Amino acid sequence: MSFINYSSREINCKIVYYGPGLCGKTTNLQYIYAKTNPEAKGKMISLATETERTLFFDFLPLSLGEIRGFKTRFHLYTVPGQVFYDASRKLILKGVDGVVFVADSQIERMEANLESMENLRVNLAEQGYDLNKIPYVVQYNKRDLPNAASIEELHRLINPGNVPEFQSIASTGWGVFDTLKAIAKLVLQELKKGR
Amino acid sequence: MVTPQFVMYEEEYQRIAAVCERLCRDANANVVFLVDKNGQLLASAGQTDNLDTTSLASLTAGNIAATGGLAKLIGEKEFSILFHEGERDNLHISIVGGRVILVVIFDSRSSLGLVRLRVKRASGELEAILEALTQKIQDPAAGSPFAEITDEDIDNLFND
Ligand SMILES: Nc1nc2c(ncn2[C@@H]2O[C@H](COP(=O)(O)OP(=O)(O)O)[C@@H](O)[C@H]2O)c(=O)[nH]1
Ligand SMILES: [Mg+2]
Prior knowledge:
Chain A is an alpha/beta fold. Chain A is about 30% helix and about 30% strand. Chain B has a single domain, classed as Dynein light chain 2a, cytoplasmic (Beta-Lactamase, 2-Layer Sandwich), CATH 3.30.450. A 5-stranded antiparallel beta sheet of chain B has the order 3-2-6-5-4, with helices on both faces.
């Protein structure tokens, strides 16, 4: 749910990076954080375990510039991927404006991808959202790995709805900003529609 | 969509900010801020200069969401007040009108009793303002300032 503030002339939107454990969600945010000007970003917060696995969420506030005199601010969140953190994932989806599904391209992670996507669909539905109707893009991450599935295969399994899709290597940053721009754009276009 | 867009207008913002200012004074608090349940900062008062209010807002909402989840698990609806006691500063967190979160940061110059008392009064006032805001947002004539943005406006954001 976007938040338009006439008083501070700001528009705030919430984008959630979703996907199976270790697919590269946190790495996406870390790269965005590292490459953004200090004045355009806030602190990145990671609520992680001692072994660096996301425990609750990562959070990164980002300013993208102005539209018609309104500052556009995006709050990026990641969810913890492990199956047993489902309760936390549901909380983070509250009030979401757009979702990036980060898939792990490795063939042996295909089942985990599908399971996570189904989990996303169910958790969104619980909040009254329909994955087919909200701003949604897919990212095929870890394209550098030798055991990566083909794009055709990934497309067939993960993106039957044919939403915007991007290849990426989050650890080097390739594809990270393309993905972010695409989802931000969709979210703003949704705003244009009114609600 | 389930929840309509949340909008803050100048008039309501001024009224909310005034309530926060007064609460901060009356409760002898260091900082007061108001956050919506999705983690967006609505207003703040007091010594916020060295405070990362954006992070505070997000973590407060996460905190409320997590304790709300805990409440459900044990059969409670929600914990409407949370209190965190630190060595120097304390946090008093309460839910107003079921939808926004009021946070008061205070030290030994104040007390939990005083904060509670003042929060109670401020909550009533905030609830009334939020109710008025909700009415205004639901007015079909309200319109969105973004209804008229063009694809070009959006593209321009990303031209760097
Ligand atoms: N080879 C490779 N490793 C990646 C890529 N993206 C992320 N990783 C690594 O995968 C691991 C898990 O990433 P992380 O972002 O923590 O996953 P998360 O659980 O989705 O947040 C880390 O060791 C990353 O460095 C990628 O594109 N290629
Ligand atoms: Mg993570």
